[in-house]
Amino acid sequence: MKRLLGLALSLFAVLPTGGQTIAIRAGNLIDPAKGSISKNQIVLVQNGKITAVGGSLAIPQDAQVIDLSREWVMPGLIDAHTHVTLNEIPGKAPFEASYLKEGTALRGFRGLHNAGILLQAGFTTLREVGNEANYACSDLKKAINMGWFDGPTLQCAGKIIGPFGGQSKGMPAEAGEFWKFEYLDADSPDEIVKAIHEDIYYGADVIKLATDNSDFFYSENNIRVAATEAHNAGRALAVHVYGGPAADAVIRGGADSVEHGFALTDEQLRLMKEKGTFLVGTDFPTEHLAGLNPSNDTLADANKLGKSIIDRLSRANKIGVKMAFGSDTVTEMSGRTRADMMFDYLAVWRAADVVPENILKAMTSNGAELLRINKERGAIAAGQFADIVAMPGNPLQDVESLWKINFVMKNGKVVRSAK
Ligand SMILES: [Zn+2]
User: Fold this and answer.
1) CB 218 within 8 A of CB 246
2) Residue 91's pLDDT is what?
3) I want to staple 179 with a disulfide (CB 3.0 to 4.6 A). Which of 166, 199, 269, 312 is the partner?
């Protein structure tokens, strides 16, 4: 009996609304894909999905009504480059210290903590692009999907695939191949295919390569092999690369997204536009860069990189490259949450003169397209999962209004409400 009751309760958590219809009165309904606002709309939600949207819809008598008639309402936010399970230790500690000191269980708990905070802030979908120990994201995703915890929809990359050495450089041979806690070495087409299969077997929804952490990098053909294998399995291929000939290979080889791309030239950005390659620019605010790792340990270094990031974002925006918002937040800042840190990126996008309409698009419909979930998420339309946020100000006028999100619905369940 107890077990049956437990089962009933967990089902209730998965489908909190039961069959009851929820009717949201949306005073200002934003369509980020079009940059438009429709006044006084009604959004009907049933069993986690949006069933109808319109200005003159009849509200069923037994519907639960949520009044957002004074708010700006839009689809839930998507971050296409997160590391919610990771905490990179700031200062002089080597990058490897973060994963040598924390095991998979702790990383899972860290992910749960951060995922909950981000959902409350309005991020209803996250793409976790590796550095999750031994597939911590896969289990976190399962726990959220089972309804044990409220959290964003997660896509996981599993272990990052790269040429020998992962993202560690210059390690002594006697230290052993310890990076395999977090990375899969793959140095030929056959090894790349095997690594992709291994990741997918353990729960990867996206394939993540890191290609330019050594003096060697993946050839165009290697990228093409990875893209083909990922696409055959219905996954996108995301590649960590900064620029140079490694980035040429990534773009020409058919990756779905360049992650970071801090040193991309105009020519490379134009090629990305032509091929439809997404830029997930992880456009770090300068204050986050300072002290993040030993190469940015002076304010002057951080300022220099911060400026070049704004310049690259501005050039990509002017050229018209498709962009998806990705934060790559990997540290903890005292007194601030990961959500605070993610919203800090808005100032970088503003500094690069990206208009709010394009920022909102990068955080919703573009993210959904890159994640291959645009038929399910990223818009407020019939047939989509009800991932909906609201705030008291207009983000198309002032994008910093996103800081004030005070209503969050995920899969039709209200997880935050100021009402
Ligand atoms: Zn990253």
Assistant:
1) yes
2) 67
3) 166
CA of 171 to the centre of ligand 1 (A): 21
Pick from 27-31, 42-46, 114-118, 297-301: least confident = 297-301
Residues less than 5 Å from ion ligand 1, measured at CB: 328
Mean pLDDT of all residues in 89-98: 78
What pTM, to 2 d.p., does this model score? 0.94
| Residue 333, pLDDT above cutoff 60 | yes
Provide the pairing of β-strand 236-241 with 183-185. Answer: unpaired
Ligand 1 center to 31 CA (angstroms): 29
Q: Which is it for the CA torsion 151, 346, 376, 379, positive or negative?
A: positive
Alpha-carbon span 72 to 25, nearest angstrom = 11
Q: CA of 200: how far to CAs of 143, 272, 319, 324, in Å?
A: 18, 27, 34, 23
| Per-residue DSSP letter, 172 | -
Q: For 217-231, what is the mean pLDDT? A: 98
Distance in Å, CA 241 to ligand 1 centroid? 10
8-state DSSP, 30: E
Answer for the pair 140, 150: CB distance below 8 angstroms, yes or no: no
Q: How far is the CA of 259 from the centre of ligand 1 (A)?
A: 8
pLDDT in tens, 6-25: 444 444 444 444 589 999 99
DSSP 8-state assignment for residue 385:
B
Angle of CA points 12, 123, 48, to nearest 5°:
30
Ligand 1: distance of its center to the CA of 309 in Å? 15
